[in-house]
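Re: beginner question about structure tokens

> Can someone show what the tokenized structure looks like for a real chain? I only ever see the sequence side.

Sure, here's an example I had lying around. Input first:
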Amino acid sequence: MTAFYSEAKPLIRYFCLKKIPQFSKYEIYSSQDVALIISGTGVLAAAIATAHLLTLYQVKSTDAAFNIGICGATSTDHKHGTPVLCHKIIHHETKRTYYPDILIKHHLVEGTLETFSHPVYKNMVSTIEGNFVDMEGAGFYEAAASFLPPHNIYCVKIVSDFLEEKKLSQRMVSELIHQNIPVICELINNIKLLNMNFGDILTENDYDMLHQISQNLRLSVTMTHQLKQFAKQYKIRYQKSLACLRPFLNVTAKSKSEGKIYFEQIKRQLVHE
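And the corresponding structure tokens:
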């Protein structure tokens, strides 16, 4: 999903997408295995367009959804044209927060995206929590999450400005996306490989160990699910077994609050190694 045709244009050309005639207000382009919709500006437009596309194509859990577009950056730490993979997305108005599961290796900068319902400028920096801002990411993610698991939903944003009050030309926007097509394609290919192997990442012994740790630490259903996701992420990212978790098989939590402390230790170990 892109918000503008200028963002979509380089992708349409690269993937040789053809416009699909249909009775809706959206422009949709597709090939055999790629479909693209242009949502228009704003959170609601992004959510409706995303839901429309994913419903139209009856996506499976092994499909992946992308929001590709430009964003503003709150600092100059990253230069103009830097590709960003958003590992946290904040909806500024509702304060709802989303965490895509990034289970793959990649060469993009990771950062927090904050989605606003209006343009954001430098004089508003004190109200911004994220590193990057846009007007669609949160709407896209919330809609996509109704159809796909979090490891198959990705917001890829290209830094286009530093919140200056100037308008980019359509040509400049297209050029920014075009320059980053190689890293976008690498990301897509890695996600394809992930989905081909995803079911085999955890072995029966892994599941037995995670179940025992969950029982020992008195983890909730949600925390147990998170534990499995972190374990999958660890094995894919670092190409290692879960041997680092074996010491926790000998730990028994006396209360749920104590179990939560151990859970945070495991989380830090699996996420940050």
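Each token stands for a local structural state, so reading them left to right follows the chain. The first strand starts at residue 18 and ends at 19.
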